[in-house]
Design goal:
The structure holds two protein chains of two kinds.
Chain A lengths: L5 E3 L2 E3 L3 E3 L8 H4 L9 E3 L16 E4 L2 E4 L8 H12 L5 E6 L4 H12 L5 E5 L10 H4 L2 H14 L4 E4 L7 H10 L4 E4 L3 E3 L2 E2 L4 E2 L6 E4 L4 H14 L4 E3 L6 H10 L1 E6 L2 H4 L3 H16 L15
Parallel strand pairs in A: 3-16, 4-7, 7-8, 8-9, 9-10, 10-15, 15-16
Antiparallel strand pairs in A: 1-2, 5-6, 6-14, 11-14, 12-13
Helix pairs in contact in A: 3-5, 5-6, 6-7, 7-8, 8-10
Chain B lengths: L3 E14 L2 E7 L1 H4 L7 E4 L8 E9 L4 E7 L3 H7 L6 E8 L12 E6 L7 H7 L3 E7 L8 H6 L3 E6 L6 E2 L3 H10 L4 E5 L2 H14 L2 E5 L15 E6 L2 E6 L6 E3 L6
Parallel strand pairs in B: 7-8, 7-11, 8-9, 9-10, 11-12
Antiparallel strand pairs in B: 1-2, 1-6, 2-5, 3-4, 3-6, 4-5, 12-15, 13-14
Helix pairs in contact in B: 5-6
The chains are: A alpha/beta, B alpha/beta.
Chain lengths: 303, 256
Amino acid sequence: MADLSVKVCGIDFKNPIIPASGVFGYGREYEELFPLNKLGGIATKGTTLHLRTGNLAPRIAETPSGMLNSVGLQNPGIDHFISTELPYLLTKDLVVLANIAGSTPDECAEVAAKLDDTDVHMIELNISCPNVKQGGAAFGTSCDMAGEVTKKVRQATKKPLVVKLSPNVTSITDIAKSVEAAGADAVSLINTLLGMRIDINTRRPILRNNVGGMSGPAVFPIAVRMVWQVANAVDIPVIGMGGVSSGRDAIELMMAGASAVQVGAAIFTDPYAPVKIVEEMNEFLDSKGIASVKDIIGTVQPW
Amino acid sequence: MKYIQGNYIIASKEAIARNIYSFTISCPEVADIACPGQFVHIRAKGYTLRRPISICGIDKAKGTLRIVFEIRGEGTEEISRLNKGDLIDMLAPLGHGFTVSDKFNKVILIGGGIGTPPMLPLANIYGSKAAAISGFRNASAVILQEDFKKTGAETVLCTDDGSAGIHGFVTEPLKELLAKGGIDAVYACGPMPMLKGISALCKENGVYCEISLEERMACGIGACLGCACRTQRNDEEYFAHVCKDGPVFKAEEVLW
């Protein structure tokens, strides 16, 4: 049995696997299938200052080796999260990354300030949601805005701050450097890629929001490339995600430079995916005689 | 709510109409807890998203579920290629089903097209207390009429083009039955315009109505919030989710 534990921003994870924000709610629905303590952590559903109803349906579409979503940050608001969801998750023996979002830098900071008084382990600031009209990706696609919102949130909390980056940019390394300079403790990437499908019979986009975020195995090579580039550009840890659906994928992303790995769409295909990925990582490490998963982080040997 | 994910053996497969298949699946632990109106979430090999399919039969003694589905796209086509003896990957039973009450002495079950299968478990429960109205595009799309007759329910068949049964929509026989009075509940599943019409008629007549909705879905268990449905609860607009809050809703709650 290899040592699967990792440390990110001083926080100990028993294994590197974290269900990504949005696919896993606040964990309750999946606990019907397996104990949450099998996971290294959980990135909770993106939470805003006030309740958000989200976008009209359809919000989901299948794509080749992947999917689109345009949920639009439907969530019950940060007060509900703190009073009802967080206490439940804090009893589950896993790292809780509270994913937060807002329409303005001040709103993001206000949400972070509310979390600062709680026992949440980390804050993951979403500056990359493609499905909301204000805030969201608008913050994540400009270095200045990304830096500004990170700075505001940094001032509002002492919690380890992870900033979740958008791949829908010309240079993700520039954005990563900008949030690092503004005080981020880590970055997580990639959020979904902006995509679109059209029903050719009705000539209507399948998503009611017209466009949405693409995820699933199809985006995995893009995630590997961006994690590798960002890990080489910044000195803070990188949490990798994007199309991971097997233990081999998770190992690959860690070799590219990820210190931990989030799993998203794969959970829709197989709800046990995160648990199986942990088991498969262990099998790989044992088969190679590698004692600790920490020993593979960033070990790709580029040509 | 309890649900299980597993691989189960397909005990029988039958093509019952053009592009419509019936599977009987041996899954005792799922059959044991399944209720009318719930659905199963089936993995289609090679696809990211599972496909939600309503339950058409629950046999707790034999430990089987029956599903009837139509090929709508590549995912359901892939599922239709499975054969008797193959394993089918299901996450089930899911969702909030129909309210069944022994106080109801006369109920109407209405299925439109591929919305007909989830009405059959209700017909099995209510038997001769039920009138089952089924509507289809034409005679070649008609399914399950013999199954409904076996339950003892009164059956009414409609087709859009008059090639079988009554020429017209399901709302015509519904109007007649409602006019006679004594109806305790109406249950319906089918295309949205049909459900909207049925809901309006029930509201006019003050008859309790439950409808089963369909939406593009990802997780199937209420975590991802993909399958939103606008509803009204306690005078407040609420984005419910078809997979967990539904697929069955009280008709009066749905905002069209």
